[in-house]
Every structure is written in structure tokens, then in C-alpha cells.
Amino acid sequence: KRLAVFVSGGGSNLKAIQAAFQAGAIRGDLAAVVSDRPGCGGWQFAESLQIPTIAFPGDDPANLPRTLDEVHGVDCVALAGFLKLIPVELVQHFRRAIINIHPGLLPAFGGKGLYGQRVHKAVVASGARFTGATVHFCDENYDTGPILSQSIVPVHPEDTPAQVAAKVLQTEHLLLPAAISALMDGRIAWRADGIPVLLEAR
Ligand code: GRF
């Protein structure tokens, strides 16, 4: 199977994904990197490895799904630190094959406007004693698709948002590659009510 990764920033999740491919922890190919911020860290990392890079939304956004499918042979999509809403055409074309990682425990601390550092600021402000990361399948809204897996991180009431962010980011680098591996291997079952179940690698 072939994967496209969407990035908007430094690309630490992309680097963790690439390392997992390298180590054989994800089987398949990293086919392309898509970004709304050409030149960002993730974009540069892709170029350094000669991985094709695609600007988002590009001159014809409705064409992106076909380009990914027919030009790059993409089967699955992972949003890794991607901050834009993906077009409904992409959601429809890659049904049950687009996952996103959110640095909070959805359904809490998510949705439009709650991304990146803003999530951790909201968590600290709330006095919550736990936070974490969530991998979910994407639908046409922000952060509302069915949850696939989560990590959990303790929050000390004196933690700064930056300290919380660092703890969460560390768990993202484990959670997302494991979810991608399952997606690429077809190790995801679906409950009758539409909740996905990650089947462990044997
Ligand atoms: C980070 O805030 C991460 O928690 C979230 O996206 C942001 C950038 O991630 N998922 P990355 O370093 O670009 O992967």
C-alpha cells in the first residue's frame, strides 16, 4: 500500500512515520507529502529524501484525489500536523482511509480553532489532570471523525503548555505510526455503529 502524508509545520510526525517505514514497522511506501506551506520543515524533509511534494490546495483542489490516486498510486492518507480542512472530495475518494492526529483527547479540546499549542493552553487552563493524543478517521469537519486510538499523558497542575506539548508530541510519534501500520495492513475492523477497532499485529 502507498501513503500520502499531509503536513503544515516542522514535520516531526512525518519524520517519525519515515523512521517507522525505514525500520519495517510500517510496510509499504511513503508516496508523497502534501502541504499548504511549501518550504516548511516537513516539506524540506520530504525533498531531502526525494519524496514527491504537492502544494495544497494546488491550482485545482477538486483534482487532488485523482492526482494522489492515479499519479502517485496513493491508497491511504495521514494528516500529520496538518492545519487546514481537507476537501470533501478527498474524504469521499479515500473513504475510511484518511486518518488525522490531534494533540488532545477528543472529543474534548478539539474542533475548529483548537489546534497545536492552543490545545495545550486550553488543557492547562482547564486544570485537567490528563491529556494525550487522538488518531481518528477524517470526515468533512475538524476533529469529528470516528476515534481509532488514543494515548494518555498525565498533566501536573504546574506544567506549562510547552511542557504538556512536549509530552504529548512524544506519544504522537508512537501512536500515529502504529495507526498507519494498521491502516496499510488492513488491520482495522469496523463496529456495526461505525467505530473502528485497531487489530494488533500478530
Ligand atoms: C504539533 O502541535 C502536533 O502536536 C500536532 O501538529 C503540530 C505539528 O506537528 N499534531 P509536526 O511536528 O509538524 O508533526
TrEMBL record:
Top-level EC class as recorded in UniProt: transferase
Keyword list, A-Z: Purine biosynthesis, Transferase
Protein's UniProt keywords contain Manganese: no
Listed name of the protein: phosphoribosylglycinamide formyltransferase 1
Formyl transferase N-terminal domain segment(s): 1-180
Residues of the full protein shown: 55 to 256 of 256
One GO BP: 'de novo' IMP biosynthetic process
Keyword Ligase: no
A GO cellular component entry from the record: chloroplast
GO molecular function, one term: phosphoribosylglycinamide formyltransferase activity
EC numbers: 2.1.2.2
Pathway annotation from the record: Purine metabolism; IMP biosynthesis via de novo pathway; N(2)-formyl-N(1)-(5-phospho-D-ribosyl)glycinamide from N(1)-(5-phospho-D-ribosyl)glycinamide (10-formyl THF route): step 1/1
